Amino acid sequence: MLEIRFHGRGGQGTVIATVMLAKAFFKVGYQVQSFPVFGVERRGAPVEAYIRADKKDIFIRTNVYTPDHVVVQDRTLLQSIDATRGLKQGGWILINSPEPPSDLRPFAGFKLAFIDANAIALNHQLGARTQPIVNTSMIGAFARLFKTPHMTAVAEAIREEVPVEAEANIGAAEDAYNEVQLVGMIEGKNVS
């Protein structure tokens, strides 16, 4: 079973990202669960959302405590959350950032990837300069990172979930798919 935790802020489309990604997984033959956990429900507040995907039926009905991978839709959250909390050793952390974090020590033992989802979203006129909507960019980058679900399924899920600006969102997902940067495994505690 694949378990993924998304971190974002209210208004970035974090919950919708997990719904779209779950639908894309379903389209390629997975059983899925997608659910959010809210603290304060307001724009800008931290949000967590989860996905489970498996080729078999899923009977677990709890939160995701030990995710296989983590997606961080706002790099400023790294100052206030532990993105590696419960993350299985060797798991991927995908961060919305134009560059990798300057201090890699907290990510030792995990794989790191990054994408400038803000720039991609703004290029496709998704959201405002101060609040770009990055969810479709992040799921496009995710699809490239894991080679599943394929972009056709991602595009179909986007069309179902955000039909008003579907083509702009699909374009953002495709750009992120092509531009995601893989740092790879962060070794040891002596990295800087």
Q: Would you give an account of this structure?
A:
The protein has 192 residues and is of the alpha/beta class. The chain has one domain (2-185): Pyruvate-ferredoxin Oxidoreductase, domain 3 (3-Layer(aba) Sandwich). It is 30% helix and 25% strand. The chain contains 5 helices and 9 strands. The strands form 2 sheets. A 7-stranded mixed β-sheet has the order 2-3-1-4-5-6-9, with helices on one face. It starts with a strand and ends in a 7-residue tail after the last strand.
Keywords:
single chain, 192 residues, alpha/beta, two-stranded antiparallel sheet, 30% helix, globular
Rounded to an integer, what's the Rg over CA atoms? 15 Å
Principal-axes shape call? globular
Give the helix/strand class.
alpha/beta
- What's the quaternary structure here? single chain
Strand order of the main beta sheet, please? Answer: 2-3-1-4-5-6-9
Number of domains in the coordinates?
1
CATH class group: Alpha Beta
> Helix coverage percent of residues?
25-40%
Largest sheet: 7 strands, mixed
Number of strands: 9
Query: What is the N-to-C succession of helices and strands?
Result: EHEEEEEHEEHHHE
State the separation between the terminal residues, measured CA to CA.
33 Å
CATH architecture: 3-Layer(aba) Sandwich
Task: Give me the CATH fold name.
Answer: Pyruvate-ferredoxin Oxidoreductase, domain 3
